[in-house]
Amino acid sequence: MCVACNHTLSTSGALIRIMLLQLLFMMALPFSKACTTLICGSKATADGSVIASHSSDGGGTLDPRLVRVPARDYPGGAKRAVYPSPEVYPRYVGEERGVEEYFASNCMASEAQCRDTAAMGYIDQVPHTFSYFECTYGIMNEHQVGIAESTCSGVFVAKPIALGGKALFSVDTLSQIALERATNARDAVKIMGSLAEEYGFYGESDNFEGGAENLMVTDPTEGWVFHVLPDPTGTSAIWVAQRVPDDAVAVVANMFIIREVNLSDTANFLGSANMWDIALAEGLWKEGEVKDFTKTFSDGEYAHKYYSGRRVWGAYRLLSPQMNLSPEYGNLKDDAPYPFSAPPGRLLTPEDFMVVHRDWYNGTEYSLSADNVLAGGAFETPDRYSGGEGESQVSGNWERPIALFRTASSFIVQSKSYLPNELGGVIWWGSHAPHGTCYVPIMPGVMLISPACLSHVYQGIYDLTTSFWAHRSVLNFAQIKFSNIIQDISALQKSLEMASQQLVFDITSKYSQISPISDVIKDEITDLLTKNVLEVRDAFVSLFYELVYKYADGYINTVNEKGVFSSSSAGYPAWWLEAVGYSDGPPSVDDGKVPPVSVKKCVMGCMDRELSDAEYRVCTKSCVHAVTK
Ligand SMILES: *[C@@H]1O[C@H](CO)[C@@H](O)[C@H](O)[C@H]1NC(C)=O
Ligand SMILES: *[C@@H]1O[C@H](CO)[C@@H](O)[C@H](O)[C@H]1NC(C)=O
């Protein structure tokens, strides 16, 4: 990445900063608005926890660092700085936020990119902020409040102050402040909604596609779906939040899902009072019509038809199969083919959410990885790259799977009411894409530092000591023989993720007997969980080397239990050979070799029949032809 090379020295510092910012925003655009989120309530899970998940499908420049933001106290009159949210690396540089990984001295990009980020504005600070873990968005705090994000389209767009607009808050900063201040999901929603209204909200892009946002917000007892978009003036916001029924699951994949809104039903809805007045004034809604939030304020699916809806269907297919939802529809926004939420087919666990994030509709007619899907190649990869020269010359779209090659990270947040806050909250963190990752537990209530192999990572520097590059190496190598290699990957994922579940169980069983949980104990647990993260990373680095060995040059190389090495030719599957015209290649020659058994059999068949000499010659010739063709 070479953002600042062209703009240096002669321009003033402030101008460089603004140009840099603009470039960063622009570079973030093409891919940064595509994430899948899930949520389910406490009566929908096997252990009574509330679960939500997020995939950060942001692409090759996204900042993948997982860091811990410490709790802090502030004197009266203190201000909280609000920074722009470029999302590409480095998303923030400076010491003000108290996160060492963000110090300029730890920044791994170019010198020009690693200058301290200038604040866009300030709001009043609170006397005490809670600790939490964050990526580009806040993830979970020490009170088990969790957040998962998916960018949406909206009918209004706004620009941030840094780009000449009037809005102060991105969803990135809103989610951080919510985790700094809230001890439950409902308060987190109210904090974000009221700040967005007061100071203005801007989306990831200032076009309609990425102009609005969705957050799943959880605590140990409740799960909320929160939608927010700018108001038409660009100085405020429109927002609504609906509680997910305790016994249900909901899916947001880059498009709003909240339908009929009833703000008098305060047990299940929160929202800005302005929304229906604005909708009326803008001609989006009429008195007497259903107050359908999505129909009124969404700009529909972006990228292509089924870009959002297929993933919603795909998630319900796995989580609520009894709903038997249709994969097809007329218009996702206007026809509302999918419900706001649905009961799951069985009680869910974080692993069920992992399975969804690793899905490409396998086994259905939409599968990106199957026999006869030529786009996936001979070894049936579900990954489809895009955005190059070729795509600009040929119009079309790929099916959008849930599992995506360009996912920088994904996670599942789990909050448990049956455990104290220190031990109840778990972030199941997956570096790089879900199908190549291995989810590791991070416990925000007790971990005092984020493991370095998760917090010191930059897509601009190849570094196999980071979990990101370990998983990225494995998934990229998997492309040479995906149908085989995904089995090696899955086997390792399963065994290590089971070991991680056991580790969380052991930690919570042991330490939930102890109160209070001292810093010494927190150190102990931090060590245990960090050791696990390192072991998983090492296992994937080893897997990477093993895969290079095992599948080198199209062979399958093995050493049996007696130490004997063998190398078998794997070749290509028959369906693919047929599809690419293998049969039409150069013809075989009659080299006088002993014909194969099937030819002999065929020739003997000719001999058994009563044929003239001429007929006999035709018959035997057809035998040879049938085999060599
Ligand atoms: C809205 O919610 C209130 C309070 O729960 C309820 O009394 C009212 O009937 C609801 N209105 C509609 C249209 O459902
Ligand atoms: C995909 O589904 C097929 C059956 O339809 C199954 O044999 C295969 O193992 C699945 N692949 C993966 C990677 O889950």
Brief description of this entry?
By secondary structure, the chain is an alpha+beta fold. It is 31% helix and 15% strand. The longest helix has 32 residues, at 519-550.
Structural write-up:
With 629 residues, the protein is an alpha+beta fold. Helices cover 31% and strands 15% of the residues. The protein is built from 17 helices and 20 strands. The chain has helices spanning 13-28, 171-181, 185-199, 275-281, 293-297, 309-319, 332-335, 350-357, 389-393, 421-424, 452-455, 467-478, 482-511, 519-550, 574-579, 597-608, 613-628, and strands at 37-40, 50-56, 67-69, 72-73, 79-82, 121-124, 128-129, 132-134, 138-141, 146-152, 212-218, 223-230, 237-243, 249-252, 269-271, 409-415, 426-431, 440-442, 555-559, 565-569. The strands form six sheets. It has a six-stranded antiparallel beta sheet. β12 (223-230) and β13 (237-243) form a beta hairpin. The longest helix is centred in the last third of the chain and has 32 residues, at 519-550. The radius of gyration is 28 Å and the shape is globular. The relative contact order is 0.10. Bound molecules: 2-acetamido-2-deoxy-beta-D-glucopyranose (2 copies). The site of one 2-acetamido-2-deoxy-beta-D-glucopyranose has 3 residues, from loops. One 2-acetamido-2-deoxy-beta-D-glucopyranose is lined by residues 262, 264-265.
